[in-house]
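Appendix B. Raw example, untouched.
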Amino acid sequence: MTEVFYQNINTSEYLNIESKPVHIKERLDIEIIDNSFLPGAKEDDWFAHSALPALKIIEKERPGKIRSFLSIGSGPGLDVLASAEVFGSSKLTLTDLQGSVVKSAIQNIKSNLLEPEKIEVNGYSGDLFEPLKKANGNPRFDLIYENLPNVPIPEDEDINKSRSSTHYIEKRSEKIPEEVKAALLDLHYLAIQQAPEFLEENGSLISLISGVIPIDTITSIEKYVDGVKIEVLFYNWNIQTSFYSVVNKYATQEEQGYGPFIFYRENDLKKAFEGISDEESGKKAREIEKSLEDKRLTATEALKLLKQGENIGYTITIIKTSINV
């Protein structure tokens, strides 16, 4: 039997806007089925905390130009609804691994738009861009967003059960560069590799990547994918809460030779990011990372401190991939 959760979300609070929303309802009624990723409180919700500020930066750079938006691995569709408000897009599309999640997300989107009859909403189920390759007309988008998982699912877990869809199946047929694989960036690499086929001429792919991985390792993907340019758009930090606690999983991966995976004490992160605005964070990302160099903790060290009750955090890197013409 499918387990269903419902969340009622104050739109202005979630989107951090002072005015009433103009494209989506003031309160969002969101259905979350048991295979879908479960959003957390605002500070724990990666989209609201980090992706949303990045999308607002895009809108400032290209006001009114993001007419089509695609989310890869959307879950309940909150990211798509937020983009509808930020960009006023007329074409909204999402994918997810399971068809039941896509069906639920489509319903969430249509039922929370103020004028759904004026918006084209599409959903596809399948792996990465594969379902779009099968769609008629090879759809292209002004902006694609992905927050794909880094951590492989344990072999004894079923990707189709519970909320294990927040992990990924490690065994893939595609060839992944060793440097990328060691950093657990497999799915982000594949998304960057495949995205240009689905981008409009001036379109871009936004990737939200946990900053437990060094910035230079993340941006090194550029050298393995022809014809793309990668830049850090937004840089942020957050606390590792118990709900999202995956430190032990990263520690296990370190034991198996992956990494390095980097964590920090909360106070060190606060000091490093003090006075940095959203707009300048991407440009100053490497400078911030450099200032934290002697404060680094391995996942194993972070796990030990976390168990002792110390607040441990990590950085979040959002990169923008565009077609290099």
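End of appendix B.
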